Structures are given as structure tokens and as C-alpha cells.
């Protein structure tokens, strides 16, 4: 999908690589007729069976069933032709409103040479858009090749030289193709069936091209070459920052230096409240100073031996520095705070059998993390006493003037759902003597949060309220320091992008999309192509920096501050969704920022923001790629095509920025 001359979205079947042309060719072959005669046979039909659109395998199943019912060859050809538009618009594009694309349609692709398929496509379009104008490319099968030729011409013009060896050499090129067990890739468990294509021209040595691999490991043939490939990738990663990936690991490390633990000489100032006359009289308040209440040395020794496990899921990605530091401040050893691994397919399949099937994938995978902590050997042998999976109802946020700071209710309820799943038939936590802690926490009310944490942990950790409150203060400082550090790195990347005319990619997503198992390592793909990536957390939040991008809006009173999104979204009650909208506003105002918008399948809180973000970025002509259907399945081929296509768009956009910079410089000289 193009907007402002740039690709913003991409639709490709995630399950099937069979195109419409392949389907028609296969049908013709099964009936022993040349594909060129397909349309004449289809047009001879007086009626047609109704095929179900979707997978080519299921379509062929329909064909077999219809044959058994007595449908003729002509009728089957007509029926398969009529289902092709549904395969395009309903199965792949998933467009409920065809008119949203306008009223002028241009058809290309070799399938348009088949008059039956072409008529079915035109009829379908005109049924849904009655006033539509439908044109067919004069050379539909070669349209893509023309585009490639035009692009090659433009590249040579920009570069100043060509590497093409000439038509004479090309016409004399020979090649051999080989696909067997000797070409199969064994560098991972997928074992891709590859094809080796060896080409040779009269003036060159033989060159081998490898096709059919699902990852870059399949591009090499030996372990030595694989090592070189991995080393070069590591070197590139060192030169090209991926703050999303860095954040996903930094969040869970013990990085904060705690202040000295209070002693019995430490004083605490608090407000004493006294109600008079049974509540009918005035409420008396006064400030008092008293000694800090410490737990006994035996209680402290008890805490130092405890181990606490935390699943690395959902809102934990927002709050991990806080949770870890709270425990560390209470003298629980950093080594005794255990986080699960990043999400992966094996983990999900192993633990998914216990839980709900109706929630989103990020919520479903949470139970797999809990299962891994309970039963994976490396976690089970640590024999932790507590598993802490808090039900976070409100989140801390930087967007101002919102209707609330609420968390997604699915996410808030997941800890309780997980507990129910693991105790339905028998209590798996009790079997391992583990205390599962899922009490609610409100991070939008600091005083309430202190009370909640003390209520949760006072007896379990044998601590005083003063100790718990002090640990909360340390935890807030750790969370702030983590954010400050990541924003400093983000500021450096953005400043360098401006200075060097670069384009960086900003990930719009929920906190758990930092998990490589949730984002399907899309950011790694962009990093391997040389693009630096930022998380929303890495956007600098200080007023001075933001004033250069939001200052005019504030002066024109469109917003009250740089952190206000009421001009584009008034019903901004969801913290993570509001932050996505705010980050989109920032990207729209920063010329060196492109956007990757991620959303998990069935995300109800993200859905209201889709059109808002799309309009914001469309109005500013900001390059953006949307992936709104990510789930447990990783469509590797589809992702690679989307990434490389978007990378091309970004290269074009970067060239535009370079041209604008030159023009601006010339204008400055003229002035």
C-alpha cells in the first residue's frame, strides 16, 4: 500500500506461497488442457459452483468434491475463476471496504492474460465499487520487470556507473540448478530445502546463487562461512545500535546503586491524623518525627536467603527495574531474583496447554513463562520460594491530560487467569512449595502503591512498613535512572541522524514488543540492513528538547504542552495506547524518523489508535510500516519481503532528505 509515494503497508499471504496464476495453471494441468485455453472453457459454462476462498489446498479439495457432485470441467473452471478476486481482496488484503482504495483500479500480473480471471476481477470490483474505472496494464505480466528496469536505471544514474556485463555476455550465460539432499541446509532445526544455481558467462568465473532459505544462515554452505557471517553480523550490530534489543536486556539487569540502608538513627517524618468527635469534629493533622523502624537481624538473614522468580512478560517490561530494585533494596541478593527467558515457539508450545485460547498471544504466552519457571531444569533447580506476577492495574506515564493511566484489562487479569490455570485440577505451585504472588499494583498513585506493596510482602518477607516504603523510593529512582540512560542513548542517535542525514526507525509498540519472541526479530532484520532503531522509551522527554518539535503547537494553543495528545485523541484512557499516539506525533515532527508500528493480533486497546496513527503519519509524509497481525506464528518469508521493501522506501526517503539538505544549503548561501 502506497501513500505519498512511499510504501506504508504490505499484504502477503502469511500461510501460502501459491499465487492465483499457479492455481489456474494447476487446474488446467489436472484436466489436461493448455492454460491458454482456460478462459474459453470457463466461458462455456452456464453455471458455476461456489468455491471457498483461501488456501490452495482447500480449493483443490473443493474441486474434488464438486467433481463428485457432477459438475463439469467448464463449470469448475468458471467457479475457480470467480473465487480468485475473493482470494485477493478478502483472504490476503482483508479489505472490508473496497471503495476506501478509491474508484480507479489498475490490474497487473500475468493472471490478467486469462480473460476468465480478468472478467471475474472486474465484476468483483464493480460490484463493490459501482462507479469504478478498471484498467489493465498493457503488459500485465511484465509490469514488475519494467519497474525493476526503471529502478536499475535510476540507481545507475545516481551512482554514476553500471555493473551490467552487456547483452552479449548475458545472452551467452549458462547455468545449472540443483536441489537435493546435498543442498539442504542443516544449520538449524528447520532444515530448509535449498536450490543451488551456478551461473557462468564467457568472461567470468562461475558464480553460485542460493535460493530457498528462510534465514541468512542458509546463504552459506560451510561452518567456516557461517562463522564469518556471524562475525560480520556482530560487527554490524556493534556499529548499528538497536535500542529495542538493548532495552530488552538492560531492563532486567541489576544496574542501580542502592543508597545506604537506613539505620536505627535514621529519622522518619510523617503526618499523624486524628479524627475527633467520632468523625463529626475537625480532623487534626500534625508532623511528627520518629526513628526508622527496622526488622530484626534474624528477619534480614531470612530475606537474604530467599529467591523470587518473575515471568518476563506483559507489563513487566515496563516495570522490571522497579520490581527488581524493590527486592534488592530489601536485601534480597540480585542473583536470587530470577527472570524467565525471552519468549520462543518451543516455550509457548510446552506451556500453552494449560490456559485460555481466547486471549491475545502476549497474554497466552504468559502461562508458558510460568510453566518454564516451574519445570525447566535451569529454573527449577534454583528452588525459589516466591513467584511474583503482579496484576498491574495502572501504569506510570508521561503523557499529560489523559483520562487515565489504565493498563489493558486482559493484561491486568492475566496473573489471576494463570493462577487459575495452574490450580484448576491440582495446585502446581503448592506441589513445589512456591507462593504465587499476584496482588494488584497501582503505579499511578505512589502512596497507594506503597500500601499495596507493604500489604503484599510484609509477612512474606518479614519487613517493616518503613523498610518497604524506603525500598519503594529506591525502586522509583532505579526506574527513573533506567529511563534516563536509555533516553540519553536515544538522544545521541537522533542527533547523529540529523547531523549525518540518516533515517532511524522508531518502534511503536507495547512494552512487551521489546521481547524478540513478540516482535519476531523484525528489528534485527532492519539492523542487519544498517538501520538504527529506537524504542518509544528512548525518545528524549525533556521540555527543552521537545520544544523544537512541539513548541509551535503549544504557542498556537493547539495543545497545552509537548505531552498533550488531546488534539488527536480525546479518549486517551489507556497508558500504552496513549504513548503510541504521542510517539507517532513525535515521529511526524522529526524528519529523520521513520516508524514501524507493531500490534499483536486481537489487541483491542490498540485498535482505536490504528486510524489515528495512520492519519498523523500520513499527514506528515512520515515513512511507516504497519504489522498489525503478529501472533505466535512467524511468517519469515513475508516479514523479509516487507522489511526489504520498506528498506527500499527508506533509502528513497533518505535520498529525498539529502536533496532537501542540498537545496537548503544553496538557499542559505544565496541569502
Layout of strands and helices, then pairs:
Elements: E1 2-3, E2 6-7, H1 20-30, H2 38-43, H3 56-68, H4 73-92, E3 104-107, H5 115-128, E4 133-136, H6 143-159, H7 167-171, E5 174-178, E6 195-200, E7 207-211, H8 223-239, H9 243-250, E8 267-275, E9 283-291, H10 297-305, E10 308-310, H11 316-329, E11 337-339, H12 345-351, H13 361-375, H14 377-380, E12 386-388, E13 391-394, H15 409-423, H16 428-431, E14 435-437, E15 440-442, H17 446-461, H18 465-500, E16 504-508, H19 516-519, H20 522-528, E17 533-534, H21 543-555, H22 575-589, E18 593-600, H23 610-619, E19 624-630, H24 636-670
Distinctive features:
671 residues, alpha/beta, Nucleotidyltransferase, domain 5, 4-stranded parallel sheet, 24 helices, 19 strands
CA radius of gyration is 30 Å
Largest sheet: 4 strands, parallel
Q: What separation lies between the terminal Cα atoms?
A: 40 Å
Could you tell me the strand content as a percent range? 5-15%
Give average pLDDT, whole number.
89
The helix tally amounts to: 24
Strand order in the sheet with the most strands: 11-10-12-14
What's the overall geometry? elongated
Low-confidence stretches: none
What is the helix fraction of residues, given as a range?
40-55%
The helix/strand class is alpha/beta
Q: How many domain modules?
A: 4
User: How many strand elements?
Assistant: 19
Overview of the structural elements:
It is a single chain. The protein has 671 residues and is α/β, with parallel strands linked by helices. It folds into four domains: 143 residues, Nucleotidyltransferase, domain 5, CATH 3.30.420.40; 73 residues, no CATH class; 230 residues, no CATH class; 188 residues, 3-Layer(aba) Sandwich (Rossmann fold), CATH 3.40.50. The protein is built from 24 helices and 19 strands. The strands form seven sheets. It has a four-stranded parallel beta sheet with strand order 11-10-12-14, covered by helices on one side. Strands 17-16-18-19 form a four-stranded parallel beta sheet, sandwiched between helices. Strands 5-6-7 form a three-stranded antiparallel beta sheet, with no helix packed on it. The longest helix is centred in the C-terminal third of the chain and has 36 residues. The radius of gyration is 30 Å and the shape is elongated. The chain starts with a strand and ends with a helix. The model has no long low-confidence stretch (mean pLDDT 89).
